[in-house]
Amino acid sequence: MSGSILIIDDEKGQRDILSAILTKMGYKIDTASGGEEALQQLQHREFDLLLTDLKMQGISGMELLERVLTENPSQCVVMMTAHGTIDSAVEAMKKGAFDYLEKPLEREDLILTVQRAFERIGLLKENKALHKKLAETKRLPNMIGEHPKMHEVVRVINKIAPTSTTVLIYGESGTGKELVARAIHDGSPRRDKAFFAINCAAIPDSLMESELFGHEKGAFTGAGTREIGIFEAAEGGTVFLDEIGEMNIAMQAKLLRAIQEKEIRRVGGKVNIPVDVRIISATNKDLEHETRRGNFREDLFYRLNVIRITLPPLRERGNDIVTLADFFLKKYSASCGIPLKGIAKPALKILLDYSWPGNVRQLESVIERGVLMAESEYIQPEDLPAEVHHEASPAGSLPFDFPAEGISIDNLERDLIMKAMQRADWVIAKAAPLLGMSYKTLQYRLEKFGIGRPE
Q: Which PROSITE patterns match (predicted)?
C-alpha cells in the first residue's frame, strides 16, 4: 500500500490508534488535533485522503469538509461519526464526503473503507493523467498527419501554446512553419488578438525597421505621415518572424532590445512605446552555425530559442504523403467543382517514391494540378508533372548522361533558375525553395544572370 492520509481528531488516543493501524498497512500518516490545524497543513502540502472526526472543538468536521471541497473539489474525505449521529454522516456524504465510519471504529471496517477510498483516488488520478495526455495530443486544424514526429510536434504545440514563451520553428521550406505558428497563436490566450506574419527575407534591409516598429512623419524621404509598425498593430497578439536567419545584424540588435525591454521606438521617434506581443520565429538555417560564423547574434538566438519545434521534411513522414494527398484532393476537387474519387495506385506509387524537395507546399501544388488535369474519376500518372515521375538518383550520380563535350556550370545554373522561375510563375518566394536557396540568394542570381520575366 502507498498513499498519504491526514487524520483529524481532537482525541489524541484516537489519533494514535488510527496512525498505528494505517501505518502498519503501509500508508504515510500525518495527524492534526483539529480543523484549524488541518487547514494550516493543507496550505503547505496535499494529502490523498482526509480522515476526520465530525464533532470537534472549533471548526467542526462538516465545516472542514465544506471548506476543503471548495478549495479542492476532488479531495477524498472520510467522516468519522459517533453512534447516533448517522443523519449528520449522510448529510456529509451529500456534501461530497466519500464515506463515513461509525465510532467506535472496527479495525476491518476502517481498513476496507480506506482501501475503497484509495481505489477511487487511483481512478481519479488515472482519469486526470488521461485527460492531460489527451489535451497534449488533441488534433489541431490544418495539422494533418499520423507520423510519430508529427504527433510530437502537436504534443509540444498543445503544451506551450497557453504560455507566452518565445518559440523557434525549424524546418525546410514548405514544411508548414506558418501553420505551426498560427496553431500556437490559436491555442493561446491571445487567440482573439491579432496575428501578424512577416517574411524577413522578402523585405529590404532599409525598410525592415519601419515595417516592424513604424515611423514618424518625416523620418525619411517619402514618410509623409506617421505609421505604426507590426509590433504596435499586434498589441496583445502574436508576431511571426519567418526566415529570421535573413535579418541583418543591426536589425537583430534592435529586435533583441524590443524583446528584452518589451518596448519599441518608431523610426525618427524619441519616445519608447511599451508593447505586449508574443514572438514566434522560424528558419530553415542552422542558427547555431550562423552564430559561430558571426551572421547571427548569439544573445538573440538564446532569446528566440526558448522552445524549439523541428518540423520533419515530407520525405521523412512515410504514409503521411498519402493522407495529405487525399486531403488536398478533396479540397481542390470541391473548390474546382471537379468530382474525383481518388488517386490511382500507379500515381500514388509515384508520389510515395518522390523526394519532395518543396515538401507539403509542393505536394499541394502537384495535387491541385492533378485535379485540374484529370480526365477520369482518378488522378492518373499522366496527370502529374514531369518532375515527380523521376525517381531519386543514386548517391553521387546525375539524372542525365554527362556529355562528351562537357558542360558549362553557369549555363546549367541559369537553365535551372529559368525552369524554377517558370514553374513558380516568376514569383521569387515560390521559386527559391525549389532551388534550395533563400529569397535573397535567388534575387542575387537573377541579377547576376540578367534573368527577367519575358514580356
A: RESPONSE_REGULATORY, SIGMA54_INTERACT_1, SIGMA54_INTERACT_2, SIGMA54_INTERACT_4
Asked if residue 266 is part of any domain, the answer here is yes
Tell me the residue range of the domain where 163 lies: 148-310
Element housing 171 (H / E): none
Q: Using an 8 Å Cβ cutoff, are 259 and 303 in contact? A: yes
Question: Which pLDDT tens digit goes with each residue over 254-278?
Answer: 999 999 999 999 999 889 999 999 9
Q: What is the pLDDT of residues 206-219, one digit of tens each?
A: 899 999 999 998 88
Residue whose C-alpha cell reads 465510519 in the numeric block: 101
432 and 347 in a single domain? The answer is: no
CA–CA distance, 69 with 72 (Å, rounded to integer): 5
Say if residue 231 is in the same domain as residue 333.
no
Burial letters 39-72, b for 16+ CB under 10 A, else e: beebeeeebbbbbbbbebeebbbbebbeebeeee
Three cell numbers at 146?
499520423
Annotate 122-140 with b (16+ C-beta within 10 A) or e (fewer): eeeeeeeeeeeeeeeeeeb
